[in-house]
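Sat 14:20. Reprocessing the chain from the morning session after the first attempt stalled halfway. Input below, unchanged.
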Amino acid sequence: GRRSSPVPWRFEDIVWDLGMRRADMDHHRDIISRALYTEDILEAKKNNRTAVIAHIESTQMIENELDRLDVLYGLGVRCLGLTYNTRTNVGDGCGERTDSGLSSFGLKVVERMNRLGMLIDLAHSAPLTSTEAIEASTAPCCITHAFPRAVYDHPRGFPDSVIELMVKKGGVIGVE
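Finished this time. Tokens:
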């Protein structure tokens, strides 16, 4: 996401990256399948192919334009992280000095992602932001890569309260 600027997460760069990756995958259909739905994953497995799910680790590129979520969904993005370590218009990342939770815009983002069917990833979000997203979401959320803070005390880790809420609401966590 840094094609045209040293600043990451520019919308134009993300669209370019998605187009390039889609072209690459289309030229390797014998081993790769784009996965937009669960059925695509099952079909890829049946045909001995790798299913690829488009995922972006931050909402930074949507800025304050909610409809950009629809554009990203239309381009095949099915999983999206709310933050990447720092504060966005959506909420606070795990690297921020404070954690103010989801913004009012962030609540609208969660609602829109639920409506679209996009999986909400909290891997780089701060604990309060994560808690509020899990509580606001009508669908299970995920933490694609993290660890319990009780095992390793680091800002990227999650307190037990977030992990327990994630489990209670049917979400999953990828342990790194």
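The chain has six helices and seven strands.
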